[in-house]
# Entry
Amino acid sequence: METYLETLKLHINRMLYYLIKSSAQWVNKPKLHILLHLPESIEQLGNASLFSTEKFELYNGVLRQSSIHSNRQAPGRDLARSFDNYSNLKFLVSGGMLYEENSKNWENPTNEVTDIFTNNPDIQRLMGFNSAEVNSLPAVAFPQKLCLKVPKSEIASLPEAINQRDKLHQVLKIKLNAKEVLHKGVFVVIDRGDKNVVAAIDSIWESKGSSKPLYYLWVTGYTLLGVDDYYEMRKLSRTSQQALIPTRKVTGCINVQHNCHVGNCQVTTSRLACLERLDTNVKTVQVEHTDNDHFVINSASLRNSDLHHAISNLTFAPITPKQWVDGMATGCRVWSDMVEEPEDTDGLEGTSDSEDKNDEEDSCEE
# Structure
């Protein structure tokens, strides 16, 4: 816990430094002040699981749904009644017990009432319940093949290194676990015992020789290089090494992005827009990658962040007091320049007082 809190304080300090350096106007954001007290709160009360504001913003859908039938005369009352109705509905279809005044007993709703929720996935989703997440498959059920046909453009020839293996068939995608899907182009971390290596999937093969299908990945290896000065992320370089790897050696997937700064990739208007699943003649902008050899590991990825941090192995220096002073001065200058900018006059330049006087004199002479 002590190590975690020290790391958290370091990253909070760095984030606040870069925010203030970009513009000192960020001091008006109350959430940033709360961050300063987050480590002490975790140390005293435990992990701050409710600090995810995105989850609370999802509740806006419930607010909108409750506001549809309001006549706006008493919106607060209408919302309260809608919330009360939703709560009662959730209580009933979940099998909640009701107190019967006449019989003075507690009674359960009948199966016809609870089946509305139990046997209806649409009703479950409307009420925010995901049965697939609750009743997820056990770990022994993976990897699992997705029943998708391999397109002709994706069909690969059997690599020479695995020609000796019998009954190998190419598959398009497989689920490594409940949340990760493997397919061509995905970057994976492979456990080699002494170290972890990064590779990109070229094709996926299935062996049906045993009772349970086995899956293999034909991958291309990548070398971990230093930290990129522009992105401040770990660099990857493509190698010529290829190998057949069983899925049990895969630790997980990582988010890898092309190093466009090294490749000097340009943004061009060359991508055909798709409308209702049909290509059109309208072209939109896209990044044209110049090579397929240089990449960076996206260490800011929220998915499987521990694996990204372990592979990237980045070190972050604490912000010194002098850096804070210089950063705050820079942020104040940026904020001052934003305040002093003239207001937009829609391209119309105002006339000066002298010009107005000249116009008046000209009109008098006439």
In short: Residues 13 and 319 are 7 Å apart (CA to CA). The longest strand covers residues 214-227. The chain is about 35% helix and 25% strand. The mean pLDDT is 82.
